[in-house]
Design goal:
Layout (H helix, E strand, L loop, with lengths): L2 H7 L8 H47 L4 E4 L2 E4 L12 H9 L4 H13 L17 H40 L1
Antiparallel strand pairs: 1-2
């Protein structure tokens, strides 16, 4: 088995089209930038939530006194939209509960209503992007070779053990 065969076993496709290559490079750069921005955003959101826990009670008190905003230098902090409680109903669970308590004819109607209101949505696949260096490909080839070498040595060791047992049995007979 030569290096070409091993590289082909890695199951990667070499892109030859220059336009597609350019698009993949741009895609990888954008992916890296999004990852960096997402990490930064998580840190900022953590700091923001900590400060919000301090400021929100003050804003809630303002609302009770009919004041509208907090002002500090050139910063104005207001409540954009008041919070409220919203009740939602788990219709499927309710219908399943009802279905256990009714006769078979009514169960059919409930099953039909559940089926008629079912909605299916498609979740798009995600694409992973990683930049690889030439060394990374070589590392994978080396790891593949190590795997083959390990299998060969295991088989040779097993054959050697069997041969040793056979020789010992033959010596015992002689």
């Amino acid at each position: 088995m030569n290096l070409t065969d091993i590289y082909n076993n890695i199951q990667e496709v070499k892109v030859e089209d220059p336009e597609l290559t350019a698009q993949i490079k741009e895609f990888a750069e954008l992916s890296d930038e999004i990852d960096q921005i997402t990490a930064r955003l998580k840190l900022l959101e953590k700091r923001y939530k900590g400060l919000e826990e301090v400021i929100r009670p003050v804003l809630d008190e303002l609302d009770e006194t009919k004041d509208k905003a907090l002002e500090v230098e050139n910063i104005l902090v207001t409540i954009k939209r008041k919070g409220y409680e919203r009740t939602s109903f788990a219709y499927k669970e309710a219908l399943d509960w009802v279905k256990e308590r009714i006769n078979p004819a009514m169960r059919k109607i409930v099953d039909d209503s559940i089926e008629a209101t079912a909605k299916t949505s498609r979740i798009a696949s995600t694409i992973g992007v990683q930049k690889i260096e030439e060394q990374s490909v070589l590392d994978r080839i080396v790891n593949t070779l190590k795997g083959y070498w390990s299998k060969i040595t295991q088989r040779l060791s097993a054959a050697n053990n069997k041969l040793s047992r056979d020789i010992d049995a033959l010596k015992a007979k002689v």
